[in-house]
Amino acid sequence: MEKRFGSGAGRGKAIGTRLVQSGVRFDPATGALSVPIYQSATFAHPAPGMSTGYDYTRTGNPTRQALEEALAALDEGVGAYAFASGMAAITAVMMLFKAGDHLIFGEDLYGGSYRLMDRIFAKFNFSVSYVNTAELAAVEAAITPQTRAVFLETPSNPSLITTDIAAVAALAKKHGLLTVVDNTLLTCYLQRPLVQGADLVVYSATKYLGGHNDLLAGAVVAADYRLADELSIMQNATGPVLAPHDAWLLLRGLKTLAVRMDRQQENADFLARWLQNQQEVEKVLYPGLQALHPQTAGPGAVLSFVVRSEELARALIGRLQIITFAESLGGVESLITYPYLQTHADVPESTRQRLGIHQRLLRLSVGIEEREDLRADLAQALNPEKAEG
After folding, report:
1. CATH: 3.30.1360.170, 3.20.20.450, 3.90.1150.10, 1.10.220.30. Which one for 259-386?
2. Active-site choice (11, 25, 58, 319)
3. What angle do CA 212, 207, 168 make, to 5 degrees?
4. pLDDT at residue 234, as a whole number
5. How many helices (H) and strands (E) are present in the chain, helices listed first?
C-alpha cells in the first residue's frame, strides 16, 4: 500500500514563499495545515505482506518525511535525510567512503568537523588534507589518486572566507571527486550549492534552519539518486534519525527562515560597519564588507572581530548584558563565542594561530533584537567609560 500523504514540499517560485509553504498540504486526508507529530515508534500492518508505507520510525516517519521532502525541494535536490545533529549528518556523509580514501577539507571550518576526522575516522585509515578552498590551485595540488571528495564551508568558520563552489565543483568533477558543502551559515535561502554543481549539501539544522536554539538537528541533501539511495541506507542502518517532535520543530522553523535571516543580516551589516570604526577593534571579518560572490544572495549574519588584547576579549565577554556568551549560532538571540577556547579548541595550536583563531578573536552570531540595543551593548562592553559613544 502506498503512503497516503502529499509531497509536503514548499510551493511557489520565490524561496521565501517556498519556505513558508513547507509541509502545507502534506496531509490531504485531514487538511491539517500544520504537519501532525506522529509520535510513534512503530506502525500497524493491514495484513501479512502489506504495509501502510510506514513500518518503524527509524526507517520512516510521516513527520520526518514531510521535513525531508521540504528540505530536498528547497535545495533543489532529489532526496534529503534528517539526522539527530549536524555532526551525525556529516558522519553519515563520511561513511560513504572507505578505508584508504583521501579527502580534502577546508582548513577554516567548524572545529567539530576537524575532531571527527582526527579522532574518529583516522582510526579507519582515512587521510585528510586541509587547504584553503578559496584558492583553487591549493585544492588541485592536494588531489591524489586516493582522493574521493572535497568538503568545504562557505563562508568559512570563523574567518568568513568565501569559496567559489562552482569552480571547486568543476575541478572535482574533472578528477572524479564529490563536492560536499556545509551550508549552515547561509542556508538554502541565501545559497544553494547543488545548483552550483555540488553533489551533497550538509547542515547543522540546529542553527538557522531551526532558528530558535531549541533543538538539535542535521540534514544532508543529495543531487543525484545514487547518493540519495546510499544515504537512505546509511540513515536506516545506523539509526541517528531525527525524532518526530524535533522534525516538527524544524519544519516550523523553516517557515520563518526568510524573515529571520533578513532581519539578522540587516543587524549584522550595521554592527560590522560600526565595529570597523571602533578604536578597540583591529579587524572585522564579514562577507558583507566586500562585494558579494554571485553564488550568494546575501552575506549571512555571522561576523568575527579581533580586539586589541586578550584581556579586552575576556573582559568584553563578561560585560555583555544582552548578547549571550554561548556556543552555537543562527538563533533569534544574539550569541558571542570565543572560538579559541570553544568551537575550535580541538584544532592544533599551530593551525589556530596560522588561521588567526587566537585569543583576541570573537565570533558574533547576530540575532533579531533591535540593532541599537545590540550596538549599545557592544559599546559598553568594549569601553565602559565611553559607553554612550
Report:
1. 3.90.1150.10
2. 58
3. 160
4. 96
5. 13, 12
The pLDDT of residue 11: 61
Determine whether 58 is an active site residue.
yes
The active-site residue, picked from 18, 64, 192, 207, is: 207
Q: What is the pLDDT of residue 201?
A: 98
| Residue tagged active-site, from 75, 101, 108, 182 | 182
Task: Assess contact for 5 and 66: CB atoms under 8 A.
Answer: yes
Residues present in the chain in total: 389
Edge-to-edge strands, sheet with 324-325: 281-285, 302-307, 361-365, 335-337, 324-325
The three cell numbers locating residue 172: 572535482
C-alpha cell recorded at residue 362: 570573537
Residue 4: the pLDDT is 43
Sign of the CA dihedral running 227, 232, 235, 237: negative
Q: Cα(133)–Cα(128) distance, rounded to whole angstroms?
A: 14
110 an active-site residue? yes
Q: Spelled out in words, what is the top-level CATH class assigned to the domain 15-255?
A: alpha beta
Q: What are phi and psi of 20, to 5 degrees?
A: -60, -35
CB atoms within 10 A of CB 350: 8
Sequence ranges of the domains in the chain? 15-255, 259-386
The strand pairing partners of 218, in sequence order, are 83, 204
* pLDDT, position 113: 87
| Active-site option among 110, 114, 130, 340 | 110
Give the residues of the chain that fall short of pLDDT 50.
Answer: 1-6, 389
Q: What is the pLDDT of residue 5?
A: 47
How high is the pLDDT of residue 7? 52
What is the rounded CA–CA span in Å between residue 190 and residue 16? 10
